[in-house]
Amino acid sequence: MRQHRLATLGAALCTAAALGLAMPPVAGAVPHQCSYLSSASRPTVTFGDTGVGVQQAQCLSNAWGGEPPKLTPDGVFDAVMLKKIEWIQGCHGLSASGIIEDRTWQVLYHPALDCYNPYPA
C-alpha cells in the first residue's frame, strides 16, 4: 500500500515537473511587490532624476529576466537604468527615448514575458 502511494506521488511529481517546463515564462517581479509609489501615481521620470518615482520604475524594470541587469531600487536614474529603460521601450515598440512617461509606465506595470531584441552589450 505504501509503495503504491509513493509510486503515485512520484508520478504526480514527474507530471508536474514536465508541465512546468512546458509552461511559458513568468515575469520575475510582480508589480504589487513594488510599493515605493502608488500605481495610480505615474510621474514623468528622466535621466538624472531621483526619488520614489525612480525607485518604482527600477523595481518594476526587474520583471525582465535574462541578460538585462537587475537594478537596485536606490532612486537614482543613472546610465545603467537609462540603457535598460530604452531596451524595455524598444521591446514594446515604443520610441527608445529613455523618458518614463505614461506609455512606459503602462509597459512597466504590464511587462512582456519575452523580448526578442538582444540586450545591448
Distance, first to last CA: 58 Å
| SSE-based structural type | mainly alpha
Mean residue pLDDT: 80
Count of beta strands = 0
Keywords:
121 residues, mainly alpha
Could you give a quick summary of the protein structure above?
The chain is mainly alpha-helical.
Notes on the structure:
With 121 residues, this protein is mostly helical. 43% of the residues lie in helices and 0% in strands. It is built from 4 helices and no strands. The chain is globular. The N and C termini lie far apart (58 Å). 24% of the residues are buried.
Topology:
Blueprint: H1 2-22, H2 52-61, H3 79-91, H4 102-109
